[in-house]
């Protein structure tokens, strides 16, 4: 009789544990999670004049099945300032992370922006690069 109860307890545990597992999608991520998909992961400003426009929008889409929530977006230094949506992004909706580089700093630059979210592919690292040169003098 003890063996029977042990078998029933084991079977119940196995069944309960199996039912609590999250199903996986074909790509190995959770089928019930958010997925953040960017149009581009890197932006090259090329050559910018000192004091020029250093703004770029990294457009992304939630290609998952759950709302996407960006918890934090960090840049590799204080010369790059990211702005991101604080509200959840619903399934198949787009949004953007606005990145502003301080173009008062001369010379070549390469900076990274790390995006943290509830997505199954988090974190995602974005990159900006370019070169800031002095403005041509007006004579």
Beta content = 35-45%
Element string (H = helix, E = strand): HEEEEEEEE
Q: Tell me which CATH architecture applies here.
A: Sandwich
Q: Helix content range of the residues, please?
A: 10-25%
Total DSSP E strands: 8
CATH topology: Immunoglobulin-like
Quickly count the helices.
1
The N- and C-terminal alpha carbons lie at a distance of: 101 Å
Instruction: Write down the overall geometry.
Output: elongated
What's the rounded overall pLDDT mean?
Answer: 84
The profile of the biggest β sheet is: 4 strands, antiparallel
**CATH superfamily heading:** Immunoglobulins
What is this structure, in a nutshell?
Helices cover 13% and strands 42% of the residues.
Structure report:
With 139 residues, the protein is mainly beta. The protein has one domain (33-133): Sandwich (Immunoglobulin-like). It contains 1 helix and 8 strands; from the N terminus they run αββββββββ. The chain has one helix at residues 2-19; strands spanning 36-38, 42-49, 55-62, 70-75, 80-83, 94-101, 107-117, 124-133. A 4-stranded antiparallel sheet has the order 1-3-6-5, with no helix packed on it. A 4-stranded mixed sheet has the order 2-8-7-4, with no helix packed on it. The N and C termini lie far apart (101 Å). The mean pLDDT is 84.
């Amino acid at each position: 009789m003890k063996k029977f109860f042990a078998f029933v307890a084991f079977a119940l545990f196995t069944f309960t544990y199996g039912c609590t597992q999250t199903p996986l999608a074909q790509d190995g991520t959770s089928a019930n999670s958010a997925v953040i998909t960017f149009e581009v992961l890197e932006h090259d400003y090329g050559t910018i004049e000192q004091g020029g426009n250093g703004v770029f929008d990294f457009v992304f889409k939630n290609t998952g099945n759950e709302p996407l929530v960006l918890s934090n977006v960090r840049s590799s230094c204080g010369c790059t300032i990211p702005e991101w949506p604080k509200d959840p992004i619903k399934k198949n909706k787009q949004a953007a992370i606005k990145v502003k580089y301080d173009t008062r700093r001369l010379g070549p630059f390469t900076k990274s922006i790390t995006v943290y979210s509830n997505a199954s592919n988090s974190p995602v690292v974005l990159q900006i690069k370019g070169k800031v040169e002095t403005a041509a003098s007006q004579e």
